Amino acid sequence: MYINDVVINKMQDTLKIASDATRLKILSCLLNELEEKSGDNHFIEKCVNDIAQQIGSSQSLVSHQLKVLKDAEFVKSRKEGTKIYYSLKDEHVRQIMRITYEHVLEEE
Length: 108
Fold this sequence. Notes:
5 helices, alpha+beta
């Protein structure tokens, strides 16, 4: 399979977004919630405060990283009143996280 330079650059940008530790923690937080719900195929939503508390980071840092993830289409948001809820964008993001996790464990 040949992949042209435009696609290679887009792949590189996508992997760069996922390579930050805080962003990986955020994605993992949203992924873990999905994985824990057996037989449930929808993506769990969490607000900034809940994510910050779960990963042990400040709300401002989590908000900033969520914007980066949203701009890169890793997460989506939904506003309800004054709160904004975030979830994984789609099944592709879940697969990227799961496959990366499995790959890392297999190397040990």
